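USER: Please consider what follows.
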Amino acid sequence: MNKQKRKMIARIMEINTRFKEIADALETEKRSMSPQETEERNALQQEKEILQLRLDRIDNGWSQNERESNEERAFAEAVTAIYRGVTTPEECEAFVRDRVIDVPVTRAAAIQDTSTVTPLIPMTIGEIIEPLEKGLILSKVGCKMQYGLVGEWVLPVVAGIEATIEEENAEVADTTIDISQLKPSPKRCALAIPVSNRAIDQSNTALLEIVRKQLTMGLTRLLNKWMFTPEKITSKASEGCFVAATSVPAIEYDPAGITWKDVIKLKGKVMKTGVVFDSTAAYVCSATTYAELEATPRDAGSGRMILENGQINGFPVFMTEFIGDNILGFGIFNYELVGQFGKMRITVDPYTGAKKNLVYFVLNTDFDMLTVRPEAFGVAKPATQAGN
């Protein structure tokens, strides 16, 4: 094992240790993460993912390193040409339109040696989505993000269809899911990433990684917030999977604290609707609620807690601060569609931040979310909060 690889593995171990320290502190102090801890966690998570990608690159050999080097060089040269107002290098013309960098779904051709003028594609939507999914709780609960969509959803599930007995010539009614109503309404998602001119001039090989990392972090926060916040995050967005469930909670528990019976009844309310359970069924709550459930006995004598080993009654429990404290959500997440539509476009803007010596990379793309079956999601919340 070479020295560089040992250093990266050691750093990943340090990051894992810090994650454990934060989790232990939250559990001991019975609180949610502070803004500073949240920022630190997000930064460490991104660093860990980049280190892991670099380790994978080392394991894949020099051909991967060479390809990555070509991509970084192509991206840096294109950006430099754009913000200096000079002619775009010939090998970069395939993905540069005026001041806009197109991010395609896939590569039109393999990366070639830098001595050729074959067009180089520095990044694809897939390469942004892959690390993005690793940071999303929606990926952990089982949602599969679709990307590069044009027109309609690619439906991953059709469940709950039931046969009926009819007269010979009677019309058969649609059941449960009306496919014709599952029309996406893509929403524009925008993100501005400031990068200093000095970073562009002196750190060309790191520029692509800087932009990709910031794209991932910004989209991760937005999609997690969009999906799990118990109310619409903006009038421009579609509803996340728990919006309807929170407005009419399946369970209103005693403000003194949630009980074992409450969490089981929550699952039962969802089961009663007839939705088909699969491996994506899970509970979701904040870190504070998670810690409380770990410290709440199921009953007076067994010594067992409501939440043990990351599960409640065999179903996994995932944490996100966006759902809010004192709310326990349950759902079958295969019924939540998440899609990215069309291209991603990055506009290089050297003017807006000129006074601060900054170049802005402005991302524009379209996303949408759709809850195929709202009854597949339920919420338990204190009775005093019901209807709020």
